[in-house]
């Protein structure tokens, strides 16, 4: 397809503070960027797409996903966090081979694109060898999605032979940063995903400093259960290690003071409502984080348990927060958290949390053309009253008709572009079969559960079932 597009006649939600929504407008895309927006643009030589009756939005940003778990879809439907850690992190993760990881990340990234996610934070903590990291990264590149490939420093139950020490993992991250991920303007960029900070603090400090040395964003699971001793945020604050380059995940057990510390440092929080509610991580921190002034984002986290689209995540986070307010107030008179407030969490705020606020996350001239088209003429969106609210409360992934990343259609009028879906499906099924065979089948996942206290400090807060 050509690289000059006029997207004509859509209702446009810009998610940009300086660019008003347009009830009916055009967007001109050239060389991957938005070059003009407005009613009735005249563009000369270009390809025109008629978007009458459609909604045009910035592409959505998933701030937290373990894409490698795609072959494990729904296996953890009834798991608590203890079950999840025992089955996925201890047993299944070491059973992945590089080709499984490629199949998983490709299928998972395409699933995300199909659901309107144009940018993904891939918290890739299944790195058993340099070849694993390469395969996961290659799949993101192959998929067409924009991504932060967050190299996961967490080791399995035993350090692998290929990466036998924490230091060897840091070295492997340096290898990628100096070769395939040297650019800070590529579609796939580098980040670092920390090991949960329940290892010796010296290791956590070294991981954080390594990310700073590489000059890449940091993301870290944080306070998903009560731990004994200082919190992750307290530890980092004590050594001046907080910063705007840190995206904390969950924070369900973070104190208000910790949230203020994150806010003061310019850092951000990723809420993953579905996992948090299911697994017993406590209530999503959405409302407390917003009140503390923290940049707040949303993630799908794991399709091994829950859904992989952000419409569900927005709705769940919103309504849980409202339920909590009603419970606290004894039936609130006013809903403090407005539906439309969820949109920045999956667009501009998420882009800024990743250091990509000038590149993506909203629609305005000068930004990359990362955008999605929703079928506003679908029955579940007709009549279209209050478009922003309808997107949050009523749209679903099936309404995503077209998806553009950096000016290239990843999905066009209902179908993924240049994707051999039969092969993608076959490969992710084969990966599932291979991984499950290596661990003795699905019935063996929770059998002979390992002693989790060797890996994670549950602080006595989470009770084993
Ligand atoms: Zn996670």
Quick overview:
The protein contains 14 helices and 17 strands. The protein is an alpha/beta fold and about 475 residues long.
What do you see in this structure?
By secondary structure, this protein is of the alpha/beta class. The protein folds into two domains: 4-58 and 366-416, Urease, subunit C, domain 1; 60-353, Metal-dependent hydrolases (TIM Barrel), CATH 3.20.20. Helices cover 34% and strands 20% of the residues. The protein contains 14 helices and 17 strands. Strands 1, 2, 3, 4, 5, 14, 15, 16 and 17 form a nine-stranded mixed sheet that branches. The longest helix has 20 residues, at 310-329. Residues 56-409 form the Amidohydrolase-related domain. This is Amidohydrolase-related domain-containing protein. Pfam families: Amidohydro_1.
Number of helices: 14
| Basic shape | globular
Strand content: 15-25%
Named at the architecture level, the CATH assignment of the largest domain is Alpha-Beta Barrel
Largest sheet: 9 strands, mixed
- Helix % is 25-40%
Protein name: Amidohydrolase-related domain-containing protein
Domain Amidohydrolase-related: 56-409
GO molecular function, one term: hydrolase activity, acting on carbon-nitrogen (but not peptide) bonds
């Amino acid at each position: 397809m050509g690289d000059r597009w006029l997207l004509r006649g859509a209702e446009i939600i810009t998610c940009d503070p300086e660019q008003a929504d347009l009830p009916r407008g055009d967007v001109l895309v050239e060389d991957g960027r938005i070059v003009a927006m407005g009613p009735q643009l005249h563009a000369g030589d270009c390809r025109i797409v008629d978007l009458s009756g459609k909604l045009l939005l910035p592409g959505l940003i998933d701030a937290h996903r373990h894409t490698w778990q795609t072959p494990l879809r729904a296996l953890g439907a009834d798991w608590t966090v203890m079950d999840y850690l025992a089955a996925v992190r201890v047993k299944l993760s070491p059973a992945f081979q590089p080709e499984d990881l490629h199949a998983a990340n490709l299928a998972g990234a395409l699933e995300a694109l199909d659901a309107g996610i144009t940018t993904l934070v891939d918290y890739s903590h299944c790195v058993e060898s340099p070849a694993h990291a390469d395969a996961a990264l290659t799949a993101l590149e192959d998929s067409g999605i924009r991504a932060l490939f967050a190299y996961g420093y967490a080791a399995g139950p035993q350090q692998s032979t290929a990466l036998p020490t924490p230091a060897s993992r840091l070295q492997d991250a340096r290898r990628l940063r100096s070769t395939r991920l040297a650019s800070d303007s590529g579609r796939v960029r580098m980040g670092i995903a920390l090991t949960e900070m329940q290892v010796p603090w010296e290791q956590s400090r070294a991981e954080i400093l390594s990310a700073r040395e590489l000059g890449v964003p940091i993301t870290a699971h944080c306070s998903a259960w009560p731990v004994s001793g200082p919190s992750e945020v307290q530890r980092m604050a004590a050594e001046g290690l907080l910063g705007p380059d840190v995206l904390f995940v969950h924070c369900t057990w973070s104190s208000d003071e910790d949230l203020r510390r994150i806010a003061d440092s310019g850092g951000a929080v990723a809420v993953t409502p579905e996992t948090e509610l299911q697994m017993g991580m406590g209530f999503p921190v959405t409302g407390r984080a917003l009140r503390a002034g923290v940049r707040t984002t949303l993630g799908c986290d794991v399709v091994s348990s829950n859904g992989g689209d952000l419409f569900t995540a927005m709705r769940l986070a919103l309504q849980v927060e409202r339920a909590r307010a009603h419970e606290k107030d004894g039936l609130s008179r006013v809903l403090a958290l407005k539906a439309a407030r969820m949109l920045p969490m999956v667009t501009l705020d998420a882009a800024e949390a990743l250091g990509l606020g000038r590149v993506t996350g909203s629609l305005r001239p000068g930004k990359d053309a990362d955008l999605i088209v929703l079928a506003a003429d679908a029955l579940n969106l007709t009549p279209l009253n209050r478009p922003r609210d309808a997107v949050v409360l009523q749209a679903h992934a099936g309404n995503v008709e077209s998806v553009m990343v950096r000016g290239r259609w990843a999905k066009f009028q209902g179908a993924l572009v240049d994707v051999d879906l039969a092969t993608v499906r076959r490969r992710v099924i084969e990966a599932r079969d291979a991984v499950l065979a290596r661990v003795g089948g699905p019935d063996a996942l929770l059998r002979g559960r390992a002693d989790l206290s060797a890996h994670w400090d549950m602080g006595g807060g989470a009770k084993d079932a």
